[in-house]
Write a structure and sequence with these properties.
alpha+beta, 421 residues, Dna Ligase, domain 1, D-amino Acid Aminotransferase, Chain A, domain 1, 33% helix, single chain, Rossmann fold, 19 strands, 4 domains, 14 helices, four-stranded parallel β-sheet
């Protein structure tokens, strides 16, 4: 019989990007999960399971009750952006620690977030809801081009597009509106926002009992303009930006009323200083948590589990290095004919931490804007080093040893139009 606390994880998602999260949590605590269907990759890490649609709040509560009858649930956690609100409802229902669902909903709703930032004087982008193309056009003229159109309730840059002139607005508004409807979004509003010009970063934060600690800065590489597809990230344990941007991230978390959990706080470094894009109240995607661990030795998934149980997490760095990830996109939409890495290089390169393939030979890949990250990426690689400059050089070297060949295929309907927009 185990005497470890039992943590309920809602929809652990996938093995590639989130497997390290579940593995870390299961190393410290007994884990039960709610997933939409049968267990697969999660099996070695969990002691029990209920199948239910986690997007259906009542179904999720019912599944939580079933697990609670068999185990004493000490905490509830998710790292799925789209399930933050339902997970808070479940935690309340089971009587375990959580911020109120309304707080998580404010994070999920970018319009509400902007209002909180403005009220608390946290530097952010000017932003207004648009209910029609005409209203978007009027707001764009008032804001001044370039602008950004984005769904208020989505994640992962879905439906986000930069618009440089009025002629591009009809296609862009259609793109943003379609993005807002993805996954039957709970919020289908579209925002017209001031474009923030400057490098994009994020600050990875940990909040315990209302005290927020900025842990690391993630420097981002964004591609596929006018879209905002993230194609790479890097973390340096001694990034000199942290003292400047950390207080802004802390102010943003406080403005939203968050008192516990992990936050991925996105911002841009503009000519007038750091300005907020959004606060995501969960561990960052794209294996950024893994980069933090490789660079600083801080285990964010374990910290998230500790916080769900009311335990102060360990945030003292045990490493001082850097790590980076490159997300591999082909040059064209089509069929994958080859994707591999030189085996001698892969086997004999100590600083090459991970190479993973997302597609197989024969698979179709579809670049943005038609294809999302699941359809567009061929693979990923992670490298480590003593500092940011070294890992940047090593990324380039590793890419030189990777071969990706894609036979161009038929461009899905609408892609040419949207790219022209």
């Amino acid at each position: 019989m185990s005497f470890r606390p039992v943590l309920l994880v809602v929809e652990p998602t996938d093995a590639l990007y989130r497997g390290h999260c579940l593995e870390s949590v299961a190393a410290a605590y007994d884990v039960v999960v709610v997933t939409p269907g049968p267990l697969s990759w999660e099996t070695p890490h969990v002691i029990d399971h209920e199948a239910a649609d986690p997007y259906d709040k009542q179904a999720l509560l019912k599944a939580g009750d079933a697990l609670a009858r068999r185990h004493t649930i000490a905490g509830v956690l998710t790292w799925n952006e789209m399930l933050l609100v339902n997970t808070a409802h479940l935690a309340q229902h089971l009587g375990v620690r959580t911020d109120p669902p309304e707080v998580l909903r404010a994070c999920r709703d970018k319009a509400t977030s902007r209002n909180h930032f403005a009220r608390h004087q946290v530097p952010s982008a000017r932003s207004t809801k648009a209910t029609s193309l005409l209203e978007a056009a009027l707001l764009a003229e008032r804001t001044g081009y370039p602008i950004v159109l984005k769904p208020a309730g989505q994640a992962g840059s879905i439906g986000v597009i930069r618009v440089d002139q009025a002629e591009q607005l009809p296609h862009a508004y259609q793109f943003a509106t379609a993005g807002a409807q993805t996954w039957s979004g709970e919020n289908t509003d579209v925002l017209v926002e001031e474009y923030l010009d400057g490098p994009e970063i994020s600050v990875e934060c940990v909040t315990h009992q209302g005290l927020t600690t900025p842990v690391a800065v993630t420097r981002k590489t964004v591609g596929f303009a006018p879209y905002f597809e993230e194609v790479g990230h890097s973390v340096d344990a001694v990034d000199p930006l942290l003292p400047a941007v950390g207080p802004v991230a802390v102010a943003a978390v406080r403005a939203l009323g968050i008192t516990t959990g992990i936050q991925h706080v996105e911002m841009r470094l503009t000519a007038t200083g750091p300005r907020l894009i959004e606060v995501n109240a969960r561990i960052a995607g794209d294996l950024i948590g893994r980069l933090v661990e490789l660079s600083l030795g801080i285990d964010l998934p374990r910290a998230a589990a500790d916080l769900a149980l009311g335990i102060r997490p360990r945030l003292t760095p045990t490493r001082q290095g850097a790590a980076a990830i490159r997300l591999l996109y082909p040059e064209t939409t089509g069929t994958v004919l080859q994707r591999d890495i030189d085996p001698d290089f892969a086997q004999n390169t100590e600083w090459l931490d991970q190479v993973s393939w997302i597609t197989a030979v024969g698979d179709q890949v579809t670049l943005p804007p038609t294809g999302d990250v699941d359809a567009a990426r061929v693979g990923l690689l992670i490298v480590t080093g003593p500092d940011a400059e070294t890992v940047a050089q090593r990324l380039r070297l590793a890419e030189d040893h990777i071969t990706v060949v894609v036979q161009p295929g038929h461009t899905p309907a609408g892609e040419a139009e949207q790219r022209a927009a």
